[in-house]
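Incident review: delayed structure delivery

Summary: a single-chain prediction request sat in the queue longer than the usual turnaround. Root cause was a stuck worker, restarted by the on-call engineer. No data loss occurred. The affected request and its eventual output are reproduced below so the record is complete for anyone auditing the incident later.

Affected input:
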Amino acid sequence: MTEAVAKSQSLTGSGMSFENILAGYPELTKEDIRACLLFASDRERKLQVLE
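Output delivered after worker restart:
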């Protein structure tokens, strides 16, 4: 599952729609993808604070 989530981040970042990602990774939900993007955003903010 972790690999699919990481891949969904990459695909979303490249402009692929949630629907296309979900077609390729049916074990994911829209909520999974949103949570993944929120995690990445939060992590980026925390890394900027550490610099």
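Verification: The helical segments are 2-13, 18-24, 30-50.
Action items: add queue-age alerting; document worker restart procedure.
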